[in-house]
């Protein structure tokens, strides 16, 4: 940086390390381009203007190409991907909420159906039980009536039968006595005897 | 001074004129190998980034990932150092980073010229950064930008010294920024060349030399790996420091 300008400065700088005794004489004769060869290139001020000029042009070109073309292009790609991912996540969230709502509705429907089914079953069972009870009661009543009637009839029949038995017994006794001894006993005596026998 | 033969570690930094452009105003101008490499770097970067993103695919391929990675890497560096406001300098920082990185990497190719091994180039880039800081600082904050040099909470009698120190530290920034990159690239390339030269010298001296050349060979291999690391690291350091300096322009006052 602090390199002195001008050809004279260069020659002094080169001569001082003591390269060649005849250096100053030679280098005055040769053109500047030749002299650069023995100098340390990064400190050779003669190349600075060219390097600066082309660096400015090249870097300006790079900056323009990057800021106008390449970087917006990559930014667009990244942005599109970012948006797409955000959209997809949102969509997935929406679908998840929907499916959760659907599952909840299904659970609710299932529970209400179960309750309803239970109710129907209970109701049916109660109805059927009540119906059966009624029928059983009416049947019982019916049977009781029939039983009572039958009992009355039996009692009547029995009484009648008992009455008949006495008559038959009196007749049979008088007939038996008649056959055994040839005389017919008085009906009063036979009846008395029969009654005594029935009671005994 | 190498005696003009095989081993001249300085030769690789030679500026060679390709097309002479005369001397307008007494200033020597020429299209040189350095300029050719600069334009090569610009073309390489531009074509890589556009080619890699040609598909604009949602799921990136390898090249597109690389392009996106470089974008997001620099973007996060800018955001981390200078905040979201710093993103207005993102194209500048990205251009600096990618230019320095590519220049360093291209320089690792044998026989290639390393643009960043020339002090004038790194100095120009550092000046660009510091001028951006100064100009933007004054345009944005006016004289308030000068608060950058006046640390708060310092006793009054110390203030003059502090201001002087702050000004010196500010002025030394472009120097350290440019010298760091220049010296790293220069020294690394010279070291590699010197050790590679040892191999050539030893093998030339006969059978014993072949075995002796093994050590510098290992050194060259190790140095090459190190130089790749340095090439990437210096580009990153340049970008990070640029961001930190730009942060001063955005937010003066400590």
UniProtKB/TrEMBL annotation, chain B:
GO annotations of cellular component type: plasma membrane; proton-transporting ATP synthase complex
List, alphabetically, the Pfam families matched.
Answer: ATP-synt_A
Molecular function GO labels: proton-transporting ATP synthase activity, rotational mechanism
InterPro entries linked: ATP_synth_F0_asu, ATP_synth_F0_asu_AS, ATP_synth_F0_asu_bact/mt, F0_ATP_A_sf
Q: Where does the sequence pass through the membrane?
A: 30-52, 89-113, 119-139, 146-170, 190-221, 228-247
> Transport as a keyword?
yes
Record keywords: Heme included?
no
What topology does the record note for this protein and the membrane? Multi-pass membrane protein
> Which terms are listed as keywords in the entry?
ATP synthesis, Cell membrane, CF(0), Hydrogen ion transport, Ion transport, Membrane, Transmembrane, Transmembrane helix, Transport
Subcellular compartments: Cell membrane; Membrane
Coarse class of the protein's main subcellular location = membrane
What NCBIfam families does the record tag this protein with? ATP_synt_6_or_A, PRK05815.2-4
Matching entries from HAMAP family are given as: ATP_synth_a_bact
Q: What does this protein do?
A: Key component of the proton channel; it plays a direct role in the translocation of protons across the membrane.
Q: Which PANTHER family match?
A: ATP SYNTHASE SUBUNIT A
**Similarity-based family:** Belongs to the ATPase A chain family.
**Name by which UniProt lists this protein:** ATP synthase subunit a
| Organism for this UniProt entry | Ancylobacter rudongensis
